[in-house]
């Protein structure tokens, strides 16, 4: 069963808005195994009074669903985001079921801690740090904490793609080491293995 945490930034979350969001996002619940409990975190933001940005994050046990949409009309953005979440689930459903069929089914697949997004620094074309940065440029503006879940590289890539991120930190299930998978510019994937 989905619970909701809906917040607005320069957007009033009226009962009508709340009802619309809950009614629409509830549609994806049919993809969850019976008895699944999760909280859908919905964030609405007005952008320059011309567009509304809608973000939905649904963290579950070993997988996190996340989507973001911008639109001139808030209700249309909600419709688009639900469609995006459904496409995301359908796209990865086969892989998720294959990966988790020996565990607790698809319910186990729907969550993992949300990863830190882009780093707060810019790299040049060759990947070097910009020498012109000041201390202000290196200020950390957001901190996230998450639990590293044991998984293999394929699961990590799957999770990274579902979150829409360029990298994903995970604990390798075989070695118990912290590793990172990342998406390369050519569309292939890379793996950074760590050791102590």
TrEMBL record:
**SUPFAM superfamilies found in the cross-reference section:** Ribosome binding protein Y (YfiA homologue) (SSF69754)
Drop me one GO molecular function for this one. ribosomal small subunit binding
The listed locations are:
Cytoplasm
Query: A GO BP term, please?
Result: negative regulation of translational elongation
The entry's keywords: Cytoplasm, Translation regulation
> What do the Gene Ontology cellular component annotations say?
cytosolic small ribosomal subunit
Q: Where is the Sigma 54 modulation/S30EA ribosomal protein C-terminal domain?
A: 136-191
Q: Name one Pfam family in it.
A: Ribosom_S30AE_C
Q: Which InterPro entries match?
A: HPF/YfiA_ribosome-assoc (IPR050574), HPF_long/plastid (IPR034694), RHF-like (IPR036567), RHF/RaiA (IPR003489), Ribosom_S30AE_C (IPR032528), Ribosom_S30AE_C_sf (IPR038416)
Signal peptide per UniProt: none
CDD domains listed in its UniProt record:
RaiA
Q: Which Gene3D superfamilies match?
A: Ribosome hibernation promotion factor-like (3.30.160.100), Sigma 54 modulation/S30EA ribosomal protein, C-terminal domain (3.30.505.50)
Q: Subunit arrangement? A: Interacts with 100S ribosomes.
* Job of this protein: Required for dimerization of active 70S ribosomes into 100S ribosomes in stationary phase; 100S ribosomes are translationally inactive and sometimes present during exponential growth.
Its family? Belongs to the HPF/YfiA ribosome-associated protein family. Long HPF subfamily.
Q: What is this protein called?
A: Ribosome hibernation promoting factor
Gene that encodes it = raiA
């Amino acid at each position: 069963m989905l619970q909701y945490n809906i917040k607005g930034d320069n957007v009033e979350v009226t009962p009508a808005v709340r009802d619309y969001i809950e009614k629409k996002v509830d549609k994806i619940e049919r993809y969850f195994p019976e008895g699944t409990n999760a909280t859908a975190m919905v964030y609405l933001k007005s952008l320059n009074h011309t567009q509304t940005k809608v973000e939905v994050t649904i963290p579950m046990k070993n997988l996190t669903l996340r989507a973001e949409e911008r639109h001139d009309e808030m209700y249309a953005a909600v419709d688009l985001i639900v469609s995006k979440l459904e496409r995301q689930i359908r796209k990865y459903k086969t892989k998720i079921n294959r990966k988790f069929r020996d565990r607790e089914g698809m319910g186990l697949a729907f969550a993992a801690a949300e990863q830190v997004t882009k780093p707060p620094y810019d790299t040049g074309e060759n990947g070097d740090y910009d020498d012109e940065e000041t201390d202000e440029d290196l200020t950390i503006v957001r901190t996230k904490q998450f639990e590293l879940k044991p998984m293999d590289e394929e699961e990590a890539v799957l999770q990274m793609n579902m979150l829409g991120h360029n990298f994903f930190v995970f604990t390798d299930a075989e070695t118990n080491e912290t590793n990172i998978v990342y998406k390369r510019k050519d569309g292939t994937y890379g793996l950074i293995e760590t050791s102590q």
